[in-house]
Write a structure and sequence with these properties.
Elements (H helix, E strand, L loop, with lengths): L6 H6 L4 H23 L6 H21 L11 H17 L2 E2 L4 E2 L1 H18 L3 H16 L2 H15 L11
Antiparallel strand pairs: 1-2
Length: 170
């Protein structure tokens, strides 16, 4: 052997302590959002949101560092990101239910989608953006909920029952 480290071994060196920190941060941020969903009694709660954020972070890290194609024209890390978005869309669609008078699960589906984006954001190292987005999501879900309920009640009083997202029923 000529003493040169194979490309795949070089790629694996990128998965050190920093990658572990990224996975832990993504998991914690998913947990913050998951706690709010758990408080509301939603199906995709604490553990689910943690797993989604962690999985998205792992896929992102693998897409960036795991494929030893740095000097290749074929390197396209965006393909993995597109796969994450599609897969999470499928998960979110599974959270939707429609009855004769309402759609249930819209906020849960949107939260699943957003938590995956937060995991991906941590995976690329944009920590401040991921933390800010997590806190903003928590504020939207928790603190703006009463406003959403009030508007829904006024709309229902004025026009009768209609299809409404699950937010307004709590």
């Amino acid at each position: 052997m000529d003493g040169q480290v194979p490309e795949w071994m070089q790629a694996m060196q990128n998965f050190g302590f920093e990658a572990i920190i990224k996975v832990l941060l993504a998991t914690a941020l998913g947990g913050v959002i998951g706690l709010e969903r758990e408080w509301r009694g939603r199906e995709a709660g604490f553990r689910t949101n943690m797993l989604i954020a962690m999985g998205a972070c792992l896929f992102t890290l693998i897409s960036i560092h795991g494929f030893p194609l740095e000097n290749s024209a074929a390197r396209d890390t965006g393909r993995v990101a597109a796969g994450i978005v599609s897969g999470i869309g499928f998960l979110g669609a599974g959270a939707l239910f429609q009855t004769s008078h309402r759609v249930k699960g819209m906020t849960t589906a949107a939260t699943i989608w957003l938590v995956a984006a937060i995991g991906m954001t941590v995976g690329v190292g944009a920590y401040l953006l991921a933390i800010f987005s997590s806190l903003l999501t928590f504020v939207i879900l928790r603190l703006l909920h009463p406003i959403s309920k009030t508007v829904a009640r006024r709309h229902e009083t004025a026009s009768g029952p209609a299809l409404k997202p699950d937010d307004e029923e709590d």
